[in-house]
Design brief:
Elements: E1 6-10, H1 15-25, E2 32-36, E3 42-46, E4 54-58, H2 65-81, E5 86-91, H3 110-121, E6 125-129, E7 144-147, H4 150-160, E8 165-169, H5 175-185, E9 188-198, E10 201-208, E11 215-223, H6 227-238, E12 245-252, H7 258-264, E13 267-273, H8 280-283, E14 289-292, H9 295-306
Parallel strand pairs: 1-4, 4-5, 5-6, 6-7, 8-9, 8-11, 11-12, 12-13, 13-14
Antiparallel strand pairs: 2-3, 9-10
Helix pairs in contact: 1-9, 4-5
């Protein structure tokens, strides 16, 4: 790929992140206008030639999810039709990832459908950060670079220098991620025993591990309505005897009343990345939220893909 020019484009999902990536790479953000026809259809105007170029489209499929996805599909298709040498879909937050298997009869596997759509549109490669489950990588028939955000989150906490620390997983499914963070912070691990009777509703049953008198960091891939993380924080402090409780996640979906729950909870601070833009007009505001940028990681990944270098070396 290194013989072709590198170009970065973005839809409307997260233009600030795309601009940050372009600035990091010291290139100009590609000229493309994504608007709407009067009936609501996506209208795309590419303002420059991409013939023979390595094109990277930065687009999280976040709220409004279907609009963001459709913009991405149309952009991928248009770039291929404009004779781009390669088109990489850089999807910091991959929507529909929570529908990756059948929970009950006749459920869709929407994560696989989205993978099929991206491949059919002409994507040559996909880059994502902290997919909801690792198995989604196998849904694609094209190369997938799956990037972990834990190293970035860990660096933040190292600078913060919290003592007497324990990392907690909010459920059994997140143990690997929590163990990774705990190893980087050289501390012990705890697991919250959670039951989820229905979507966006959870119940804390207990905690596995010693958190009494400890400062605890809960880590998850995403926070949606913040029910799990808020209940977990309250349980850790009020019933398990934890001292201060922090939380971190890669994807801040923050569907209302997420920030209300966070503000009212035992959480001292919530750390997240900018894979999804925080929109106060939608999710509200909270002085407990801190953000670290994912742009350097994505920029280095894009550069390595463009120059045919190993991406995994970033995490050695």
């Amino acid at each position: 790929m290194s013989g072709s020019a590198l170009k970065i484009f973005t839809g409307n999902a997260n233009p600030a992140l795309a601009t940050e990536i372009a600035n990091y790479l010291q290139i100009k953000l590609g000229s493309a206008k994504v608007s709407r026809f009067k009936d609501g259809e996506v209208r795309l105007e590419i303002g420059e030639s991409v013939r023979g170029n390595d094109v990277f489209i930065i687009q999280s499929t976040c709220t409004p999810v279907n609009e963001s996805l459709m913009e991405l599909l149309i952009m991928v298709d248009a770039m291929k039709r404009a004779s781009a040498s390669s088109v990489t879909a850089v999807i910091p937050y991959y929507g529909y990832a929570r529908q990756e298997r059948k929970q009950k009869a006749r459920d869709p596997i929407s994560a696989k459908l989205v993978a099929n759509l991206l491949t059919a549109a002409g994507a040559d490669r996909m880059v994502a950060v902290d997919l909801h489950t690792n198995a989604i990588q196998g849904f694609f028939d094209i190369p997938v670079d799956h990037l972990p955000a834990v190293p970035i989150l860990a660096e933040y906490y190292k600078r913060k220098n919290i003592d007497n620390l324990v990392v907690a997983s909010p459920d059994i499914g997140g143990v690997t991620r929590a163990r990774n963070l705990a190893e980087r912070l050289n501390c012990s691990l705890a697991i919250i025993d959670k039951r989820r009777p229905e979507p966006n509703k959870s119940e804390v049953m207990g905690v596995i591990g010693d958190v009494s008198g400890k400062n605890v960091i809960m880590v998850d891939d995403m926070i949606d309505t913040a029910g799990t993380i808020s209940q977990g924080a309250n349980f850790l402090r009020d019933q398990a005897g934890a001292n201060e409780v922090y939380a971190c996640c890669t994807h801040a979906i923050f569907t209302p009343p997420a920030l209300e729950r966070i503000n009212a909870s035992a959480l001292k601070e919530v750390l997240t990345t900018n894979t999804i833009p925080l929109r106060p007009e939608i999710c509200g505001e909270s002085n407990k939220i801190q953000t670290v940028s994912i742009a350097p990681l994505l920029s280095e990944t894009i550069l390595r893909i463009h120059e045919n270098m190993s991406v995994s070396r970033l995490f050695d």
